[in-house]
Design a protein that fits this description.
The structure is a homotrimer.
Chain A: H1 3-18, E1 21-25, H2 31-41, E2 44-47, H3 54-60, E3 63-67, H4 73-89, E4 93-96, H5 104-116, E5 121-125, H6 126-132, E6 139-140, E7 143-144, H7 152-162, E8 165-169, E9 173-177, E10 180-184, H8 197-211, H9 215-236, H10 240-253, H11 256-262, E11 265-267
Parallel strand pairs in A: 1-2, 1-3, 3-4, 4-5, 5-8
Antiparallel strand pairs in A: 6-7, 8-9, 9-10, 10-11
Chain lengths: ~270, ~270, ~270
């Protein structure tokens, strides 16, 4: 096994052993499948957004995942309280700016949340990362119009402004922290035909960040595991209904050899 | 290939090529599976309901789907703003009056939305179409107590009052515009054992209406594709968990021959 | 067939024949899969939470299921109105205190709802039942830290204070009413790796309570059917994505012999 495989495997083993509680404030579309992906990975997910309880819940959780997919004002209140509390307690925050760039509201909320409590990791597609970095990226709703490499400069800028890890998802995923860039070329194009696979990548990053405080590494490991499970699933059957099922199965049964055999990870 | 098959195939090809952005304001139960059905068909779905952004989002979308399944006041505000904006911009609106007839609230909201901005297409089961037409149809929650043919007069009345296409789903689907009626006898009874298949038909209609401005045709094509994909899925395995998976797979892999071999469509 | 099998089968046959309308006010994570589980069982589910209509909806439903998974204030208003109305009309209420014990808010809302309108059946995991009984049980988010037998005293106390059936889910499920205890040792540990299987058990209990006014029996039958369908699914494939699909298939196709062959139910 390569040292990187061993390092991914160490994280995964710890997730499976400890089942860290991952607190999600996420969108309605993906609540079910991200909860299932976290369970299949070995973590313990909870979806809690009420202003009355998010602070209490953050305090018992190992990490916080915030996703603005089906944004509305009521959820923003919960996100605000939860992120502030996570920051006070030093718990990792993973932020997914779904659809940022598509509306002024999404842009404003994203900026407000970043300013309030800088996330540990930001994960988005190329359009989202470019929009968040203040570049006038065009978006197509929640889908990207660009390849992930087009957003590398934006990711570097975001990472340096906010001092956090930035992940660009795409055919190749880039994980950026300051001058460091890792790239993961795992995954399968069919994954874009299943809703919420990006959101799932964000949620899994929350689980890895719960067990590995080297967050650059944690995010990279999450993207590798995500991509490899996606490949395994796509090879079972090239159709999106089956992919969703087979992806969860692959996550649950993932072995160290499967990781080692398939890993396409470059640190630079 | 029959001319009708060719016409359906032309729409489907255009959806797959253009991936039109379909803006959904829909219920919590089906957000995930209607997003997946739209993706499997080839469209680009987004679920956006916040009053702060629905107008912006309508303006970048190709069509708007409004579904009152898990209705509440907050969503009604979003629906109102979105439908008004879609009307101003001349974008097609597909409306699904889930459970209308079951409560006074659902009746009131449906009438208010129709009056505010007449949809391009209304799709419901027989009970819903009858209730919406002001007939005192009994409903059983969100399920119909009638065969689809029982609602034909109600559909004609609705279509003539509002000047829009009306679709009645059932063992046979009827698509009505003024004096024109098309009927689609595809589909499988097992589809009623999977939640949100009606909502999925509505969402797919949104995708067809995004590429075909003959909305009577667009709605008919959507019901044909829905029914044929359902048949293909039911023939794989006669059980509802599998049906949901196989339905998405069938939508994604659907070929022109499969449509031509199975199509049971009558224009009259 | 054993008398117990016959009694379970009688309920199941009635559910399939009558398709009772089960009104759910439940959490966003599980709305889709609990609706699908109720459909696969043979019931007619509806998810309705708006304060404007829950009372009307309760009055046309056969039972009410209230689940506090993704609790917030707006839903609490709907739950309050619905439970009060169900009580007035003598309709069975099944209550699932998801995550109670994890936050003060959850504890308060649960106590308020119990006081307002005692449920017919309360179903939770061991941590939840202990927390609800006022024991200082530790929870881990929405997962239990205890085996189900650890909560037997708490269940007896809850049952005697509120005069209702209390179900503790776990490797062995306990169903408690006063001095009576039934235990069901069916099920499979993989079920804990699929989100919302507990919520599904609660929803199925709503369907059984709709056709059997011996609620102790109804709850026991629901847990038996749940466990057996879970076993059948786990035996098809030992992976969580497949389990969810195969569970729905097994529920839908469940036969009297499958129940009789597998039932591990003890009345004491």
């Amino acid at each position: 096994m390569s040292p990187t495989t061993q390092s991914i495997w160490a994280d995964l083993t710890q997730i499976r052993a400890q089942a860290p509680l991952v607190h999600n404030i996420t969108n309605f579309v993906v609540m079910n499948n991200t909860a299932n992906a976290l369970l299949a990975l070995g973590a313990s997910p909870a979806m809690v957004h009420a202003p009355e309880e998010v602070e209490d819940f953050v305090s018992i959780s190992s990490s916080l995942v915030v996703n603005i997919g089906t944004l509305d004002d009521h959820f923003v209140t919960g996100m605000t309280l939860a992120m502030r509390r996570a920051k006070e307690l030093g718990k990792p925050i993973v932020f997914d700016p779904v659809g940022v760039g598509a509306t002024a509201y999404r842009n404003q909320v994203s900026q407000d949340l970043l300013t309030l409590a800088t996330p540990t990791v930001i994960r988005g597609n190329a359009s989202e990362i470019m929009a968040l970095a203040g570049l006038n990226a065009q978006t197509k709703g929640v889908d990207s119009l660009f390849g992930s490499d087009a957003a590398l400069d934006a990711a570097r800028r975001l990472s340096s402004v906010w001092g956090c890890v930035v992940v660009i998802s795409g055919a190749t995923d880039y994980i950026v922290l300051g001058d460091q860039v890792a790239s993961v070329a795992n995954g399968h194009s069919l994954m874009t035909k299943v809703t919420g696979m990006g959101c799932t990548a964000t949620a899994l990053t929350g689980a890895f960040a719960a067990v590995n405080t080297n967050y650059f590494q944690a995010a990279t490991h999450a993207m590798a595991v995500m991509g490899i499970a996606g490949e395994l699933a796509a090879e079972k059957k090239l159709a999106p209904g089956s992919l969703q099922v087979n992806f969860l199965d692959a996550l649950y049964t993932l072995t160290e050899s499967e990781i080692d055999d398939r890993l396409k990870l470059t640190w630079s």
